[in-house]
User: What shape does this take?
Amino acid sequence: MYAVMLRELESLVAGEDNAVGVLANAAALIYHSTGYFWVGFYMVRDGMLRLGPFQGPVACYRIGFGKGVCGTAWERASAVIVPDVEKFPGHIACSSLSRSEIVVPLFNGPEVAGVLDIDSKDVGAFDETDRDALQKACTILSAAIF
Ligand code: SME
Assistant: This one.
């Protein structure tokens, strides 16, 4: 599934430099390819992660550095997998239906410029296969929009 999705992402972003459009189409592609509950982007602006394009239920607008799973991935500048959100101190519950989560940073050069955040309704939904594929997706996106 991810091999097909990454090929589709490559062709989807080719020749397009409109960041909002690229991220919106990426969220739609990942959401419909994976079937996960929430798929979207938070982008760094004015020292905060600010809600970007997404698919799924409405979500919070701002996340601070080191806050929640997203802010933790930003602080660590690396992917974070949370198998059970109820066991992650500081998890920000945008929806009570979310049970596990993966967050992968988007880099602009050496700097974290945003994150890809994916939530599942199932505990333990994410593993290294998800992380590796989503990191590749973020590399494709970074090359397109930065
Ligand atoms: N749960 C995230 C917040 C964003 S929502 O999942 C869409 C977090 O703890 O950072």
